[in-house]
Amino acid sequence: MSKKTLQTLAVLVALAFLSGPAFADNNATSTTTGTGNTSTIDQSGDGQTADVTQNGDNNDSDVDQSVLDNTATVQQFDNDSISTVTQSGNQAGGNTADVFQLSTDTSNIEQSGDGNAATVNQEIANSSDVNQSGDGNTAFVGQIGNPDPVNYANVSTIDQSGNDNDAIVRQDDFNESNINQTGNGNSATVDQIGFVGFDFNGSDVQQSGDDNTADVDQSGDLNVSTVDQSGDLNLASVNQSGTANGSSVEQFGNNNGANVSQSGTLNNSIVRQQTDNSALVDQSGFANSSTILQDGSIGNAPSIGNAANVNQSGEWNVANVSQDDFNTAFVDQSGVGTDVNPNTVDITQFNDGDTASATQLIGAGNSIVIEQEQCCTGPAGADNFADAVQAGDNNTTTIIQLRNSPPVGPPAPQ
Question: What's CA 301's distance to the chain center, in Å?
């Protein structure tokens, strides 16, 4: 570190601990170029601003700002960069942090207060952790694009709690993303970019609260996505393309909707929903599997008025749908099934007013099983409807429609 840099650092730290009206509006700037750089800015009091730029090896920057209008911008270029920004602000505007890193990067941003925003751009051996609590938070982590393929080994974790939170993560190569949101009007988007190398993408989004939306788009190899939502008006959409993709969407609460689209080989999708939910799964490839549970298996409560739609193309597909009360299920398998590797459909609907339709139009050895149970709506129950269409050889269709009468009690007294 140069002598000029050391002097600048000493002045910045000294200003941070001075108090009085002369230093109410703090401003700090640190610029270092060279080897083994370190910059620390500590500010406390009204509208602080910190600007740190480092160019050269072994960079390290720590900015700590507290109460009201904090702003921090850190740019670290080559070599072993580490940046930590901690901000706290209330009642006026809020915190903003912007960090750009290149090379062996690590960034941690913690914000608490009104109107917080965090942006992190990284490349190569990246890691980012953003934790926000308060109103109107927004976090964006890029981990930048990959020309050739640079930009690998990315990890991003965003944790938000409070109102109007929004998180967007874009990654490439050895990616992993975890977003956890709690509060009103949350939205999470994870895009793990198209594959120009070998990607083992993974994404986990958990949301709890009102008006949550999660959108995960994965392209490449060995992708995994899990979205867990609890609360009102949640929506999850997962789009995967590539090899050995898997998706699990679990929603609990009112008016949830899930849309899963998979393309490639050995795709797997599991959707669990309850009450006025809608699920659409579209799979193409080989040995696809789809399971939709809309039967009260989560929350141990009735699941009413759900709709399930499964479209599978390719060979050796499996579709399972389980529903409860006034639901509709449609399964269309257009891929080739064989006696050894058949396409199979299993639809189970409990209680009243259900509709099931399954279609298999090509192949041999395919199987459709529809089981419907009718119970307890009026003296004769509410009618269920089942429809099955198959084309090919050695296919089987089984339709079972039952009515469970109320239990017979002891004879009435004479």
Answer: 25
Q: What average pLDDT does the chain have?
A: 84
- Burial (0-12, 13-18, 19+ Cβ within 10 Å), 233: middle
* Rounded-to-5 percentages of helix, strand, coil across the chain: 5, 55, 40
Our measurement of the distance from residue 31's CA atom to the centroid of its chain's CA atoms, rounded to an integer in Å, reads: 38
CA–CA separation, 150 vs 122, rounded Å? 11
More confident residue, 379 or 342: 342
Say how far apart CA 141 and CA 120 lie, in whole Å: 5
Which residue, 345, 341, 321, is CA-closest to 396?
Answer: 345
Rounded-to-integer distance, Cα 215 and Cα 201, Å: 15
| H or E stretch covering 357 | strand 355-360
Give just the sign of the alpha carbon dihedral 338, 339, 342, 345: positive
The pLDDT-based confidence of 332 (bands split at 50, 70, 90) is very high
Query: pLDDT class for 11, splitting at 50, 70, 90?
Result: very low
Residues contacting 6, CB < 8 A, separation 6+? none
DSSP three-state, residue 14:
helix
Q: What pTM does this model have? A: 0.85
- DSSP characters over 215-241: EEEEEEES-EEEEEEESSS-EEEEEEE
- What is the percent of the chain with per-residue pLDDT over 90, rounded to a whole number? 52
pLDDT at 139: 97
Residue 264 · residue 292 · CB < 8 Å: no
pLDDT of residue 407 exceeding 60, the answer is: no
Write the pLDDT tens digit of every residue in 310-321: 999 877 899 999
What DSSP string describes 88-143? EE-SSS--EEEEEE-SS--EEEEEEETT-EEEEE--SS--EEEEEESSS-EEEE--
Q: From CA 199, how far away is CA 283, in angstroms rounded?
A: 21
- For 299, the token pair is 């929350």
- How far apart CA 119 and CA 109 sit, in angstroms, is 9
Nearest-angstrom CA–CA distance, 360 and 311? 11
Copy the structure tokens of residue 314: 């390719």
Beta carbons of 139 and 128 less than 8 angstroms apart: no
